[in-house]
Specification:
Number of strands of chain B: 2
Strand order of the largest sheet of chain A: 1-2
Largest sheet of chain B: 2 strands, antiparallel
Distance between the termini of chain A: 19 Å
CATH topology of the largest domain in chain A: ABC transporter involved in vitamin B12 uptake, BtuC
Structural class of chain B: mainly alpha
Order of helices and strands of chain A: HHHHHHEHHHHEHHHHHHEEH
Shape of chain A: globular
CATH class of the largest domain in chain A: Mainly Alpha
Distance between the termini of chain B: 39 Å
Oligomer: heterodimer
Shape of chain B: globular
CATH architecture of the largest domain in chain A: Orthogonal Bundle
Radius of gyration of chain B: 21 Å
Largest interface: A-B, 48 and 52 residues
Number of helices of chain A: 17
Radius of gyration of chain A: 24 Å
Number of helices of chain B: 14
Order of helices and strands of chain B: HHHHEEHHHHHHHHHH
Strand content of chain A: under 5%
C-alpha cells in the first residue's frame, strides 16, 4: 500500500501544482506562458516517445502538431457554419489527436521502414513538403497569414465558455495531466518495453519474433496522436495556426526541448519544455541573440552532457539514495566549477551582445546596456573586460572541472560501497 | 523548342550546383556515417567569405581563397566538435551538425546582419556570352557551368586515379580494414570532412551571387541536397550527379512551363471543384508545385526503390 501511495505522490503533487499555479502567478503574461508550456509538455513528451524511447530522430514532428492545429481551427469554424456535428471545445483536443494519428499512420508507414539517419532524412523531407504545401494550398492553409478562429462556442458543462484565459489554462492543464499519465503508463506496458528494445537492438527484437518495423510504426502513430492533441490545444489557446507550426523550426524547437531536458528519462522533456519556453518568451524581448544561445546550449549539451539536465540529476540519484550526506563533499568542487562557468558565460554573452549591436548598426540612436551597465561597443574598454572574463572563466573551467569529476567519482564509489537501506 | 533548351540549360546549371553540394555530403556520409546537417551552412559561409574577399580584393581571389577557408573551418569543426561526439553514436553526431547549422546561421547574422549582402556577379562577366534563338546565355552562367564540370572531372579523376582517392574509396567501404593497414582514419575523416565543406564553399562562391547571399540560403537549399543524395543512392557520386541533374531540370522546367493542373484534371475527365477547400488542387500551376517536387520524388523513391538510383547498400 505504501508503495502505491509512493508511486501516486508525484502525480498528486503535479495535479495540485497545476491547480495552484494560476493562484500564485496571477498576471496575464504568466497565465499565457503556463498554458503554452502545458501544451508544449505534451508535445515534448510525445516527441520523446520517438527520440528517447524509440530511438527515432525526427526533424519533422511538428507536421502532426501543426496539421492537427489547422484541422481544429477549420472544425471550429465549420461548427459556426453548422456544417459539421457539434463537439464541445473540451473534447476538441481528442479530435486533434485523431488527426495526428491519421497522418501518423499514413506517413509513418513510409518513413518507419528505416531507422536511424535515413528515418531522420525522410522526416525532414515530409516536414519540408508539408511546409511548402501550406504556402501552395491557400484555401486550406492560407499561406503565410495562417488561419484563425474563435474558441468560444457557447456554454458547456458548469457554464464554462472558454472565453477567459483561465478556463483555457485549466483545459490545457487537465489534458496535460491526462496525456502525461497516459504516456507514462505506456512506457510501462509490454509495447513500451519492446519499443526500448527496438531502439537498443532491432536485430535481437527480430529474433524473438517481433517486427521492429511494426513496432516503430506503432510508436510513431501513437506519438503523432499525442502531438495532435498538443496541436489542437495550441489552436484553442492561440486561436491561430500558421505555417510556423508545421515548419522545421517548430520541429527543431521540440527537439531542443527534449534533448536539453534529457531524452533518456521520462521527466526530461517536461523540464526541457518548461525551461526553454520560459527562456524563449522572456529573452526574445531582451536580446537578439536568443537563437544563438539556444544553438550553443544545444551543441554544448550534446558534447558534454549527452544525458541532458535530467541526466545530470539522475547521475546523482544513487548517491542520495544510499546516503544523502554523501552529497556534502560535492558542494565545494561543484560551486567552484559553477562559478567558473558563470564567469565564462557572462563574458561570452557580453562579447556576443556587443557584436550583434555593432552589426545591426543602430548605434546612433540607442545605447547598449549589458548587466545594467551602459557599454559602448565602439570603445576598447568593454571589449577588454568581457574578453578577460571569458578567457579567465575558460581557464578556471579547465582547472576546476577535474576536481568536480573526481568528487563525483569518490561519492559514487562510496555510495556503491554501502549496502542499500 | 528553343525555350526548352534554355530551360534545360538553367536546370543543368542548378543541378550542377546541387551536385557540388551533394558530392561532399555523400562522401562524408558514406565514409563516416555522418549526415552533415550543416553542409548547406558551409555553402552559405562560402558565399559570405567570397563577398567579403571580393570587397577587399576581387572575385578571382575569392574563388580560390574562400573555399580553402571554408574547408579549414569544416576540418576544425570535425576535429574539435564532431570527433569528441563520435563515441555517443550517429544520432548524436547528426544532432551535433544540426546544432552547428543553427549556430552558423546565427553567427552569420551576427557578423553580416539579417538582410542580404550585395554580393554581385563580377563586372567582367555580367554580359551575355551569346544570344541563341532569342535567349541570352550570360557569360557568368556559362562560367558557373564550366567551373562545376571541371570540379566534377577533377573529383572523379582524384578518386579514381590517385593514391589518395584509393585510400578514400577504401575508407568509404571499410574503414576498419584501412585503419589496420596503418592509415590514420580520424585524420582521413577530418580532411575528407574539410574537403567536402570546401566543395560546398566553391558552390557558395559561384552560386551565392546568382541565388542571393542571405542568412536563409542554407535552410532553403539544405533539405534539397539531402533529397539529392537519397535519390542518387547514398555513397554513389555518379548517382548524386544524375539525381542533382534530374531535380535541377525538373524544377526549372516546372517553373518555366507554367501549366495549370486544372486543365490536366479536365483532360482526364475529372470533375473540377472550384469553390470548396480543395479548390487549390485544381487551380495551382506547376510553377507553384515546383518547391514540393523534390520531396515528392524523395517519397516516391523511398516507397519504390529505397536504395536510390545507384545505391549499393540500404540507406
Amino acid at each position: 500500500m505504501s508503495t502505491l501511495l509512493g508511486r501516486l505522490t508525484p502525480w498528486i503533487a503535479g495535479a495540485a501544482a497545476l491547480i495552484a499555479l494560476p493562484h500564485v502567478f496571477t498576471s496575464g503574461f504568466a497565465l499565457t506562458l503556463m498554458s503554452q508550456i502545458g501544451l508544449l509538455i505534451v508535445f515534448a513528451l510525445a516527441y520523446n516517445m520517438l527520440l528517447g524511447q524509440g530511438g527515432m530522430l525526427s526533424f519533422g514532428h511538428a507536421v502532426y502538431f501543426g496539421l492537427a492545429g489547422y484541422f481544429t481551427i477549420h472544425y471550429l469554424n465549420f461548427i459556426y457554419e453548422e456544417q459539421v456535428p457539434y463537439i464541445p471545445v473540451t473534447l476538441i483536443p481528442l479530435l486533434g489527436g485523431l488527426v495526428g494519428l491519421f497522418f501518423g499512420i499514413l506517413i509513418g508507414y513510409v518513413s518507419t521502414r528505416r531507422a536511424g539517419t535515413t528515418f531522420a532524412m525522410i522526416s525532414l523531407g515530409f516536414g519540408e513538403m508539408v511546409t511548402a504545401l501550406t504556402l501552395v494550398l491557400v484555401a486550406i492553409f492560407n499561406g503565410e497569414d495562417g488561419i484563425q478562429t474563435d474558441r468560444v462556442l457557447g456554454e458547456e458543462l458548469f457554464g464554462i465558455t472558454y472565453g477567459p484565459n483561465i478556463e483555457v489554462y485549466y483545459l490545457i492543464a487537465g489534458w496535460c495531466l491526462v496525456c502525461t499519465l497516459a504516456m507514462f503508463l505506456l512506457t510501462r506496458t509490454p509495447f513500451g518495453r519492446i519499443s526500448n528494445a527496438v531502439r537498443d537492438n532491432p536485430e535481437r527484437v527480430e529474433f524473438i519474433g517481433y517486427s521492429s518495423q511494426r513496432i516503430r510504426w506503432l510508436a510513431f502513430s501513437l506519438s503523432s496522436f499525442f502531438a495532435g492533441i498538443a496541436g489542437a490545444l495550441h489552436a484553442v489557446n492561440i486561436e491561430h495556426v500558421g505555417f510556423e507550426q508545421v515548419s522545421v523550426i517548430q520541429s527543431g524547437l521540440v527537439l531542443f526541448m527534449v534533448y536539453i531536458g534529457g531524452a533518456a528519462t521520462f521527466v526530461g522533456p517536461i523540464i526541457g519544455a518548461t525551461l526553454l519556453y520560459f527562456l524563449q518568451s522572456t529573452l526574445t524581448g531582451v536580446t537578439e541573440a536568443w537563437v544563438l544561445y539556444l544553438g550553443v546550449l544545444f551543441v554544448g549539451v550534446i558534447m558534454f552532457f549527452p544525458g541532458g539536465l535530467a541526466g545530470l540529476i539522475s547521475m546523482h540519484q544513487p548517491i542520495w539514495r544510499a546516503r544523502a550526506r554523501l552529497l556534502a563533499p560535492l558542494l565545494v568542487p561543484y560551486s567552484r566549477f559553477l562559478a567558473a562557468l558563470i564567469v565564462c558565460v557572462l563574458g561570452c554573452i557580453g562579447l556576443i551582445e556587443m557584436l550583434y549591436f555593432r552589426s545591426s548598426r543602430l548605434s546612433t540612436e540607442t545605447e547598449l546596456v549589458i548587466y545594467g551597465v551602459e557599454s559602448d561597443p565602439f570603445s576598447a574598454g568593454p571589449w577588454l573586460i568581457f574578453a578577460a572574463a571569458a578567457g579567465l572563466g575558460a581557464f578556471a573551467i579547465r582547472k576546476t572541472y577535474p576536481g568536480a569529476v573526481s568528487a563525483w567519482n569518490t561519492a559514487i564509489a562510496d555510495a556503491r560501497a554501502r549496502p542499500l537501506g | 523548342m528553343e525555350s526548352i533548351i534554355f530551360a534545360m540549360f538553367n536546370g543543368v546549371l542548378y543541378g550542377m550546383l546541387l551536385f557540388l553540394l551533394a558530392s561532399g555530403l555523400t562522401l562524408i556520409f558514406s565514409m563516416m556515417g555522418v549526415l552533415n546537417f550543416a553542409h548547406a551552412s558551409f555553402f552559405m559561409l562560402g558565399a559570405y567569405f567570397a563577398y567579403q574577399i571580393s570587397e577587399g580584393l576581387n572575385f578571382w581571389a575569392a574563388l580560390f581563397v574562400a573555399p580553402v577557408i571554408v574547408g579549414l573551418v569544416g576540418a576544425g569543426v570535425e576535429r574539435w566538435g564532431l570527433r569528441p561526439v563520435h563515441r555517443y553514436g550517429h544520432v548524436a553526431e547528426l544532432l551535433f551538425t544540426f546544432g552547428v547549422a543553427y549556430v552558423i546561421e546565427e553567427l552569420v547574422q551576427m557578423i553580416w546582419g539579417r538582410v542580404p549582402v550585395p554580393y554581385e556577379i563580377p563586372e567582367l562577366m555580367s554580359g551575355a556570352l551569346f544570344t541563341w534563338q532569342g535567349f541570352d546565355y550570360s557569360i557568368y552562367r556559362v562560367f558557373m557551368l564550366v567551373v562545376s564540370v571541371v570540379i566534377f572531372v577533377a573529383l572523379f579523376a582524384l578518386l579514381t586515379y590517385t593514391r589518395i582517392g584509393l585510400i578514400i574509396r577504401a575508407a568509404v567501404s571499410d574503414p576498419v580494414h584501412v585503419a589496420t593497414l596503418g592509415h590514420d582514419i580520424p585524420r582521413i575523416f577530418m580532411w575528407t570532412f574539410g574537403f567536402g565543406c570546401a566543395l560546398a564553399g566553391v558552390a557558395g562562391v559561384v552560386g551565392g551571387n546568382v541565388l542571393g547571399t542571405e542568412p536563409a540560403m542554407a535552410i532553403q537549399l539544405g533539405p534539397i541536397v539531402f533529397v539529392v543524395i537519397v535519390i542518387g543512392g547514398l555513397g554513389s557520386l555518379g548517382g548524386a550527379l544524375v539525381a542533382a541533374l534530374i531535380i535541377g531540370v525538373v524544377t526549372r522546367l516546372a517553373i518555366f512551363y507554367d501549366y495549370g493542373l486544372g486543365s490536366l484534371f479536365l483532360s482526364l475527365g475529372l470533375e473540377i471543384d472550384t469553390a470548396g477547400l480543395l479548390r487549390d488542387f485544381t487551380r495551382i500551376t506547376t510553377a507553384q508545385v515546383a518547391p514540393v517536387l523534390p520531396y515528392l520524388m524523395l517519397v516516391l523513391m523511398l516507397i519504390f526503390k529505397p536504395r536510390g538510383l545507384f545505391g549499393t547498400r540500404d540507406v
